[in-house]
Amino acid sequence: EVQLVESGGGLVQPGRSLKLSCLASGFTFSNYGMNWIRQAPGKGLEWVASISSSSSYIYYADTVKGRFTISRDNAKNTLYLQMTSLRSEDTALYYCARQDYYWFAYWGQGTLVTVSS
Amino acid sequence: DIVLTQSPALAVSLGQRATISCRASQSVSTSSYNLMHWYQQKPGEQPKLLIYDASNLASGIPVRFSGSGSGTDFTLTINPVQADDIATYYCQQSRELPLTFGSGTKLEIK
Hints:
The structure holds two protein chains of two kinds.
Chain A: E1 3-7, E2 10-12, E3 18-25, E4 33-39, E5 45-51, E6 58-60, E7 68-73, E8 78-83, E9 92-100, E10 103-107, E11 111-115
Parallel strand pairs in A: 2-11
Antiparallel strand pairs in A: 1-3, 3-8, 4-5, 4-9, 5-6, 7-8, 9-10, 9-11
Chain B: E1 4-5, E2 9-12, E3 18-24, E4 36-41, E5 48-52, E6 56-57, E7 65-70, E8 73-78, E9 88-93, E10 100-101, E11 105-109
Parallel strand pairs in B: 2-11
Antiparallel strand pairs in B: 1-3, 3-8, 4-5, 4-9, 5-6, 7-8, 9-10, 9-11
């Protein structure tokens, strides 16, 4: 069974940093591209970042480019999102999702990030 | 960016057909694929893939869900609607970066 378990969320002050993790199991992690997608409270879905299976290709939404860094450790079956210079508008539930070809086939349950003083 | 437009809400009676539309600001189709996908999100849960490449049913999804469309106009159909289908439905395109989602259509029971 495919499982994606996010962690690392919490309350953080504006301008500070936070690192999210997503532990994958039930599939060969190193064979799949992975993504972070977020959802602000009561709002829709926003794609944040993508990373290919071998980390050769990395893409970001303009809203986070230069502040967030996506990475992965295939030996640890773990996806990361390093977030710096956090803003109130980054407050959201952050999901990791496995990418199958061109779609998001599996999603984790999400980890909540709240940016507030 | 490709903007995907969905109606905010749709009310349907149990046992009837629900048709949810998604219109893209530019074509999301290639010569080989229609790069539009549909997700269901129930309250308090993560999104779940329903349909990929416009018309392909994801694994484990009931056959009363179906998708159609090409170019800029796409449709998700649920027939017949069941009480368990109460959720918000999102379309998503992967034709070009940034990957974008529609704003979601909330399915309500009439």
